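Q: How would the structure tokens look for this protein?
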Amino acid sequence: MSSNPTKAPISWDVATRVSKWAASCPLGSPKSEKGFHPVSISEQDYLEEMFSKISIRAEELVVEHTGLVPSTTGVPCAEVLDRQQWSERNLHTFQSILDHAFASSSTHEGIYSSIFSSNLILRPSSWITGMELGISVGWLSYRVLGQYDIFGGGYGYEAESATLDAPGSVYYVGPNILSLQRRHGFDLYPFGLWIALHETTHRCQLEGVPWLRSYLLEIVDHLLGAMVVPDPERLSAAIKRATSSATSRSDLLSQGGLATLFASDEQLDDIKKLQAAMSLLEGHGDVVMDDAATDIHEEAKIFSKVLKERRKSGNILVRFFQELLGIKAKLLQYEKGASFIRELQLKGGDEITSLVWQEPANLPSLEELDNPDLWLKRVAALSRV
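A: Here is the predicted structure in token form.
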């Protein structure tokens, strides 16, 4: 690899500026944000103090309920962000991942250098992709309540020692949490604890299952590595599949957004593996946030109902963005993953459920998520549980 590795053809400066613009609500608040006002300094201080304590308690409940103990020492790194900060953190992470994917494709570096060396090609493409990414991330900033960042705000690819050893950060998007809390008249502490249960569950999953983090990173590396290699034949085949009468474009979009529309067969396999794993993680997170909420059991039932309604709500424009960006597929992940975990609990309790964390081969496929009996026959029967 040369000393100046090829970077992804995206203007990160444009993406950051556009995302901050989109996240600052320049055209007025969405209908779902009526009555929202900016978070004051005193509110920010209160949220930071509250979530620092809440995250510790939430993780204690998750560890007690799941038995998954984070490998990194210390308390969860909890940060309360506004929408612009959340957008900037995620763009930083995207930049780390994509630059790593391009830099790793050393054998194709010369091709990309020649393609993107011309200002006539580089500038328009990088500006356009930067604007598209910025708008997408800025729009998403209105929907997120919390997030576990596996890279801790960009770590992982920038520092070799951080790739698998550094703990991720738990983010809470203060404006969105306060908006939803005020709209429904929730008590802030139990509502915050309930949100923290989901995000600290992800921390326990990805830091408590030794192989899981590297497994996901390897899929992402392989998927992006294939995507950055210019292969006209593969792209042509993907376009034919996407435009064929036998394939519904709406079906492809609903499976994973725009990325699946022109993905090759090999890329679709990677996408399916990633979707299945993420569905398990998200569904497990939803189950744990309800079951482990022993401190706030009754409130959790109400919170869960409201959150499910919020995920399904939205006007035509919102639903369009959800399909285009793969959010619709992500929403289905929560439902499929949670149903799968519930079925395993019903069939064999914690002993059966714990098998999914033993090794990568035990992760369910998308088909098995829809039909847990298939997974039980393949994994549980072989394990003689």
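The longest strand covers residues 77-81.

The chain has a mean pLDDT of 76.

Upvote if useful.
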